[in-house]
Amino acid sequence: MRTAFPDFRLGAVLATSFTGTLSERHGDAVERIPTPHRLVDWLAVYGLTVESCTTAQLDLARELRESIHTAATAAAIQDALPASAVQAINDCSVQGQAAVILTPEGKRQWRLSSASCVEDALGVIAADAISIIAGERDGSLALCASPTCRAAFFDTSRSRTRRWCDMNTCGNRQKKARFAANQRKNAGSSE
Ligand SMILES: [Zn+2]
């Protein structure tokens, strides 16, 4: 079945998966949360279930997303963090009132203050971004090697040598491009 909206690119890290909802930032950018409903869908995937989302809340979410992208990119290249991005992330973190609870099965679950509180979900994402930008977690921020992507991603590989934000998309495409270039080179040299 064809879907009217671009698929999500789901990663293991909440904050950088969120920034990945706008992909190919340096190419033909793809907006993966084009409507409030798609943000609701995305949040549900990460256990941040809200019943509804307004256009204003979607705007706020996108503002947070771009602020995380800007701050994470600066952190990845060891640049100073832009003050406006830090402010926007902090505002979202302070505003959110989500509580973390432990289920009887021993799983972590988020409880939002109300079912329409997208701000609570954004607070959780902001806190996640803070933990990776501040270097609190095992891993380091890096930029995707794809020139049309350059997404900031959280590299948790032991050697910290991951090159792509996502192996299935950017990594694969690069591999295919290299293969095609080699084919051309080989074809050229056999003439
Ligand atoms: Zn990428």
From TrEMBL:
<feature type="domain" description="Zinc finger CGNR">
    <location>
        <begin position="142"/>
        <end position="181"/>
    </location>
</feature>
<protein>
    <submittedName>
        <fullName>CGNR zinc finger domain-containing protein</fullName>
    </submittedName>
</protein>
<dbReference type="Pfam" id="PF11706">
    <property type="entry name" value="zf-CGNR"/>
</dbReference>
<dbReference type="InterPro" id="IPR023286">
    <property type="entry name" value="ABATE_dom_sf"/>
</dbReference>
<dbReference type="Pfam" id="PF07336">
    <property type="entry name" value="ABATE"/>
</dbReference>
<dbReference type="InterPro" id="IPR010852">
    <property type="entry name" value="ABATE"/>
</dbReference>
<dbReference type="InterPro" id="IPR021005">
    <property type="entry name" value="Znf_CGNR"/>
</dbReference>
